[in-house]
Automatic annotation (TrEMBL):
Alphabetically ordered keywords of this record: Membrane, Transmembrane, Transmembrane helix
Segments passing through the bilayer: 190-209
Pfam families documented for this protein: Guanylate_cyc
A GO biological-process term: intracellular signal transduction
Organism: marine metagenome
Protein name: Guanylate cyclase domain-containing protein
Domain Guanylate cyclase: 12-126
Highest classification ranks of the organism: unclassified sequences, metagenomes, ecological metagenomes
Length: 605
């Protein structure tokens, strides 16, 4: 009889129990159980509200599964706050304190139950948590630290019952600030430490390593971002009867909704749009007060049953109209026309003002609708975020696109290649050998289907070099073929990484600079960060300052750029500014491990 295949998945596990429960039962069993049931009811209600599912209980212990790390942490902190209020109430006859641990990891699915390391680590985190506290694993912290306003206390690497893991306390209030003994995390060989010391200087490397481990993250106020900000001004209507004057408002709301589907731009709400119109703000005021890059204006003119819809995009930085659209139509077709023109505006923002016309038009030709193209671009943005949560989101999007486009294509094989590559690099692959075999197949199959695909050659170059042991000679050959097939911003950026890994930093810099020239908006500072790394490694410090300029204040500035700025300021003796930059780098995901990878030029991204 065949053995049933073990089902696995990635899950967010929430583990909790009562502090001193056994002792309380010994003193007054009936009152303890009664109060525990009341507290558990509060917890169950919060689980329903935040999409949590209890999969196991034992005595005072509760294990639950969440699909979102953010939801799990919000649920945990809300529960602890409610328990604190309950314990402080004069009507509470027995105070109860809970500890909560939250982990994201691989679990084994057995019916409705879950097992495995993912569950075990959550239980160990719960044991490590303080009374009334919440303790998180590194994987959960990476998901939420940019998305939530909580403060976190980095506890470093902990060992509980033979399990080693990196832990963080959620600082719900000042009582949750503590120092816990940690064991050294660094496994850097002596030769690596020497290499670091030669680059940074002995004092500098240890100073920065200690700051990364000890300094808390802080939020900084910033209006700059790599995402373009869009404001859709209320569409003006003329010639409409009184009962149809709301058409303009409807078109405005519809356009905001359609543009908001693209996650690489920031579309301001309709409330802001109507406020700007009501107060008659000037373009310069809109730009300066709301940080708007592009303003979309429009009007609809009606005469009888005939209508004209005009739309234009104004670049507020250049103070000029960059795109104009006009459509004459029968008023009965208003909804189709407003959607069509909104999609044309979205396409302009995605291609000519976003990823660049060369690769944007090439990619767009593969999709049957603007909605599918938008999903592809959103997949790309999620993948480039490079967190476990964004990886899972991008995998879901790619699976949806595969269902819509089951036929073979070079673009879909390239997308699958990058998805699989990231899964291996992030060490969340459940079958590395199978994934490596698949990588070898899809990178070659994409070129077989389209021997002129620059994207496919670029993918085979970097993926082959980093995971398939093809070596620099083969990787550089693929980079050259990619360039001969028509370079795009993405392929040039990937080529730059290959040149850097193969020791030619000058070509890496030239290739990455050319990539920046082709992309109107470097979302996430993805290309900029790679260029700064290479400029730093070649000692071109003034070029870094010239490239970044005032954009260093951007809230989403690349973490490596911020870390390099921190070190440069430290060398100048500006300790306070250095610590500010390093804290911002931590907010954006920087760590001691990334410091070592950056300086040793071993970063795979």
């Amino acid at each position: 009889m065949a053995t049933k295949e073990i089902e696995r998945k990635i899950a967010v596990i929430f583990a909790t129990d009562v502090v001193g429960y056994s002792k309380s039962v010994e003193v007054n069993e009936e009152q303890t159980i009664k109060n525990f049931r009341a507290c558990k009811k509060i917890l169950e209600d919060l689980f329903k509200e935040h999409d949590g599912r209890i999969f196991n209980t034992a005595g005072d212990s509760v294990l639950a599964e969440f699909s979102s790390a953010v939801s799990a942490v919000i649920c945990a902190t809300e529960f602890q706050k409610l328990m604190k209020e309950r314990n402080e109430s004069e009507t509470t006859d027995l105070k109860m304190e809970f500890r909560i641990g939250i982990n994201m990891g691989d679990v084994v699915v057995e019916g409705d139950n879950l097992y495995g390391d993912g569950v075990n680590i959550a239980a160990r985190l719960e044991a490590l948590a303080q009374p009334n506290g919440v303790c998180l694993s590194r994987s959960v912290h990476e998901f939420i630290n940019k998305k939530m306003d909580f403060l976190f206390n980095d506890l470093g690497e902990q060992t509980v019952k033979d399990n080693k893991f990196h832990a963080f306390d959620v600082v719900i209030d000042d009582s949750h600030k503590r120092t816990v003994k940690t064991k050294s995390k660094s496994k850097t060989p002596l030769v690596a430490v020497i290499a670091l010391a030669l680059i940074f200087g002995l004092f500098g490397i240890y100073y920065f390593a200690n700051i990364i481990e000890e300094k808390p993250s802080i939020e900084t106020a910033s209006v700059t971002s790599s995402k373009s900000s869009i404001l859709v001004a209320p569409i003006k209507a003329s010639g409409l009867p009184a009962d149809q004057e709301a058409f303009g408002t409807g078109i405005t709301e519809s356009m905001i909704s359609i543009l908001s589907q693209y996650k690489a731009i920031r579309v301001l709400s309709s409330n802001t749009s109507f406020h700007v119109a009501k107060t008659e703000m000037l373009d310069a005021e809109i730009r300066d007060q709301y940080g708007v890059d592009f303003l979309i204006r429009g009007s609809i003119q009606v005469m009888g049953n005939n209508a004209r819809l005009n739309l234009e995009i104004t670049d507020l930085k250049l103070e000029e109209v960059s795109v104009s659209k006009k459509r004459d139509f029968n008023l009965n077709d208003i909804f189709k026309v407003q959607d069509d023109l909104s999609n044309e505006i979205l396409s302009e923002l995605q291609i000519n003002m976003g990823v660049g016309s060369r690769q944007g038009k090439r990619w767009a030709s593969n999709w049957k609708s603007i909605e599918d193209f938008t999903k592809f671009l959103n997949w790309r943005n999620e993948l480039r975020t490079f967190t476990k949560e964004s990886h899972l989101n991008s995998q879901r999007m790619l699976d949806e696109l595969k269902d819509l486009y089951p036929e073979e294509s070079d673009l879909m094989y390239v997308a699958e290649a990058w998805q699989t590559w990231q899964r291996i690099v992030m060490q969340i692959s459940t079958d590395k050998e199978k994934d490596l075999e698949r990588l070898n197949f899809v990178t070659n199959k994409a070129i077989e289907l389209n021997p002129e695909s620059a994207d496919a050659y670029a993918a085979r170059a970097l993926i082959g070099l980093t995971l398939l042991n093809t070596g620099c000679e083969a990787a550089l050959t693929n980079v050259i073929k990619s360039e001969e097939s028509g370079s795009t911003a993405d392929t040039l950026q990937i080529g730059g990484r290959v040149y850097a890994r193969c020791g030619d930093l000058n070509k890496a810099i030239r290739s990455t600079r050319n990539a920046l020239k082709l992309v109107p908006n470097d979302t996430g500072w993805f290309i900029t960060g790679a260029l700064v790394n290479n400029l730093y490694l070649t000692g071109q410090i003034e070029e870094i300052y010239k490239l970044i300029g005032k954009n260093i204040e951007a809230k989403d500035m690349d973490q490596n750029v911020l870390a390099i700025y921190a070190f440069l300021e430290h060398k100048k003796g500006n300790k306070e500014l250095a610590e500010e930059y390093l804290s911002r780098a931590k907010n954006n995901g920087f760590s001691r491990v990334r410091l070592e990878r950056l300086i040793l030029n071993k970063e795979l991204r």
